[in-house]
Amino acid sequence: MGAVYGGVEGGGTHSKAVLVSAEGHILAETDGPCTNHWLVGVDNCINGINDMVQRAKIKAGLDPDTPVCSLGMSLSGGEQKAAIQKLIDDMRERYPKLSQSYFITTDAIGAMATASDYGGIVVISGTGSNCKLVNPDGTQVGCGGWGHMMGDEGSAYWISHLAIKTVFDARDNLVTSPHDITYVKKAMEEYFQVSDLMGMLPHLYRNFQKSHFAGFCRKLAEGGDAGDALCQHVFTEAGRALGRHIVAVLPKVHQDLFSGELGLPVLCVGSVWRSWELMKSGFTQVLSEAQAHGYSHFQKYSLLTLRQSSALGGAKMGAQNAGASLPLDYSANVNMFFSHTFNQ
Amino acid sequence: MGAVYGGVEGGGTHSKAVLVSAEGHILAETDGPCTNHWLVGVDNCINGINDMVQRAKIKAGLDPDTPVCSLGMSLSGGEQKAAIQKLIDDMRERYPKLSQSYFITTDAIGAMATASDYGGIVVISGTGSNCKLVNPDGTQVGCGGWGHMMGDEGSAYWISHLAIKTVFDARDNLVTSPHDITYVKKAMEEYFQVSDLMGMLPHLYRNFQKSHFAGFCRKLAEGGDAGDALCQHVFTEAGRALGRHIVAVLPKVHQDLFSGELGLPVLCVGSVWRSWELMKSGFTQVLSEAQAHGYSHFQKYSLLTLRQSSALGGAKMGAQNAGASLPLDYSANVNMFFSHTFNQ
To answer: Which PANTHER family does the record cross-reference, listed alphabetically (chains A, B) (predicted)?
Structure first.
């Protein structure tokens, strides 16, 4: 058996693990639940990761007691140095047969590593949201990624919250809703199984689960697709919010990233991007406004999506960290779904 | 010994208990920590209440094994029917010597019962915020009071959050701060004992304590008093937010409440009101705008503050619920600190 490298993509709702050969071939993939340690705690996080990787070993016909060469993890919530060091220390101690070496990066960087080795902007909108610019020289500039208490603008959590808050504010006569709330209120009562606003309190506090709360976004996407104006409104606002994250890092984008064939490459990660058509007007408007106000070298941008889990980029970075180089076919890993050239 | 009635004021940070004689005299008062069951859980809530009331009995020279006639509790978070019934059932079962009967109302209604039996508007801004209109006929209309995940606008939590979010957004280049962030950033690092924004994550998630988070508001008040523009800005915004709660219930205010000597009586409860001077411009502006846009019978309003704990109003309502009537001297229970007559 040749060298095997593991990778993990850890999201706020779902996770994935992948095993890759030295030639860059995928040997096995497995799925698991949320492994964001801020949301589920360190124990659940590392148990979940171990479980996925061990199942992948068995699926690939490997001995589960033989550690992989490296495990590179692309984790939502994988930013704070002290916290990720603790994760690695705990994994090493508790699961000595898991891997020979460990590497943790953020979900944004893992996604970028899956798509390109040249850089670009990653905008994540899944359960939470985050934006990261990676320049060709490897330098990074972030915006967001602070979680639902301090950001997550444009994420599924944020969209769900915005819609529900609109219902609360309308009931309170505190803010007038821009559109009829009937559909959203009814969808909320059905999704959360409540009969009034008071019933929402346990979902917001005692039994709060970010992933479940954010899941309401799917119902709003359905409403938006079916023509409900308030659902469409919250997605337009989400598009605007995600666009603003890109505008926030624009001043730090290296000149070379603007000049490729795609224009500025924006890698869009997370399930909310499936509702691109609902977000498009808000998103494109914010970018056009920014371009018009002083970014004359910003003439085109393209939105890309991953065809592979960012666990693959995690595996690549984990291998790199262990001194190995995994050859990835980047062009096979991405898809372009939207491109815009500004009027000159 | 004559009949003794107990009252409790339960806040998001502090709580109080009071014992009152049938003549309305205060026999003893005690203090305790947060008893908001949404924040500390049912067990801590009822243990805290029992502890305060039993200490009050001893302080008043009463036998702690003799139940008081009634216990009326004015609780932040005391709105949801099913939840308060569970609190009462648990208290009755676990502490049979505490009281013969139980009654729970919200902090807003308990405060109003302490100030008046004629009604008015209560605006609470402590750890959280809430607004309740009580009309002379006893009917109630609320705005807010949904907690930090869905409201709390204008509260200490909200003010702290707004200031900190301004620092995060400035760092991210996501939103430009209206004023220099230096003071707020430094005060945040000192108060939360962190050296960067990443260090705030445990305070927002794993170790989040609403009361501690909201306590940062005191540092912002100090900054505002010392002339820091961003601190002053967040309090002006808080004044605006609290004013908007009043405007939200204005359409439901009974005509008679406008026509007393004080004009519309607004009872202001909670520690944030101590920073009234910092909030005044935002608050008065919102009310003046609302008055100018169609409330011609709204000619004057007065802001009142309680000189007694709303545990007293809780005791009154608990006694009432048990068939007794406690005589309270309302005029001795309130203070007017601001009054405004609109230009005709």
So the answer is: BADF TYPE ATPASE DOMAIN-CONTAINING PROTEIN, N-ACETYL-D-GLUCOSAMINE KINASE
- Which of A174, A175, A192, A203 best probes binding to B when mutated, by most B CB atoms within 10 angstroms? A174
pTM of the model: 0.89
CB atoms under 10 Å from CB of B302, counted, come to 20
3-state secondary structure of B8: strand
End-to-end CA distance of chain B: 57
How far apart are the C-alpha atoms of B62 and B145, rounded to whole Å? Answer: 36
Put simply, whether A193 touches B (Cβ < 8 Å) is no
Q: Does B73 touch chain A (CB under 8 A)?
A: no
End-to-end Cα distance, chain A? 57
Q: What is the largest CA-CA distance in chain A?
A: 67
- Alpha-helical (H) ranges within chain B are 37-59, 81-94, 107-115, 156-172, 182-191, 201-204, 210-225, 229-249, 255-258, 276-292, 311-321, 330-333
Q: Are B168 and B160 in contact (CB under 8 A)?
A: no
Q: Does A205 touch chain B (CB under 8 A)?
A: yes
Tens of pLDDT, residues B191-230: 999 999 999 999 999 899 999 999 999 999 999 999 999 9
CB-CB under 8 Å, B38 with A206: yes
How far apart are alpha carbons B23 and A179 in whole angstroms? Answer: 54
Among candidates B254, B248, B265, B181, which has minimal Cα distance to B220?
A: B181
Quote the tokens at residue A2.
């040749």
ipTM of this predicted complex? 0.88
Give Cα B203 to chain centroid, integer Å. 23
What's the per-residue H, E or C state across B148-189? CCCCCCCCHHHHHHHHHHHHHHHHHCCCCCCCCCHHHHHHHH
